[in-house]
Amino acid sequence: MQLGMIGLGRMGANMVRRLMAHGHECVVHDIDPAATSLLEGEGARGARSLEELVATLTAPRHVWIMVPAAFVADTVDRLVPLLAPGDVVIDGGNSWYRHDVDRAERLLADHGVHAVDVGTSGGIHGLERGYCLMVGGDEVAVDGLRPVLDALAPGIDAAPRTPGRAGDPAPAEHGWLHCGPAGAGHFVKMVHNGIEYGLMAAYAEGLNVLAKAGIGRIDHAADAETAPLADAQYYRYDLDLAAIAELWRRGSVVTSWLLDLTAEALHADPHLDAYGGHVSDSGEGRWTIHAAVDEGVPVPVLSAALYQRFSSRGRSDVADQVLSAMRAGFGGHVERRDESR
Description:
The chain is an alpha/beta fold and 341 residues long.
């Protein structure tokens, strides 16, 4: 099958490589000409402009956009006037699902162009592992993409079959799923990433408790500003986080790919000195909380994980200062600057 790919970053380029390895023809474009040239050298057909990309593709065209969410709307606005009725635009980034709902209706009504949203998980390892694909859009457009989705997905051998499943494997067992109409793919991916925030926070918080388990060996000031540690004898452990993460990978109920990556990071850098602890969020966690509020669904773990990311970036600075000021005001408490222990 022939596919146009716009955006050749860390994921887009590897998706092209995986598609070509499965025999698909890819026409590629990126705002960085060097990225286009690189994939040309690997067998893709390069296009230096959107016009050239569209002209190179055979109708009905399938054009996959793999750019950051902030640039999707502009890319679509420049691309769609070049297309024809029956063509399909695929947004594989992390767009807000509401934008997909509105965009799909507008593109079909105004241009006869189908819009498909594909929440794509797999990161920089997708070339080898495959990509978990959460798809939204009308049945006809999605059905036409099956060869591409099958090639990008991990495949049936990526995991043992769930007990009780029999017969021909369903698409979800191959690693992709048509979740529903426009926006459904990105809605599922949005919640997927919200869960990811919570899982990551759980590992991080638990490992932090282990890292501080030697607090009983530290001398504590006896004053009004220091909470006493009455049971210091129970906190005298010097625990090897890298070894514990490695241990948990084997037979533990908390085993996961995230734990694998954590163990890898701790082995390479036991004190994680290469990391400052500034944790970004790309929007999906926020949108998950937004949806939960609209639905009246409690998500305390997911919301706490999102707020911790805000705190990691220094966004709790005023709140922390206000707390310190109030303590000084009502109790004359002098702020202790060094609380590293």
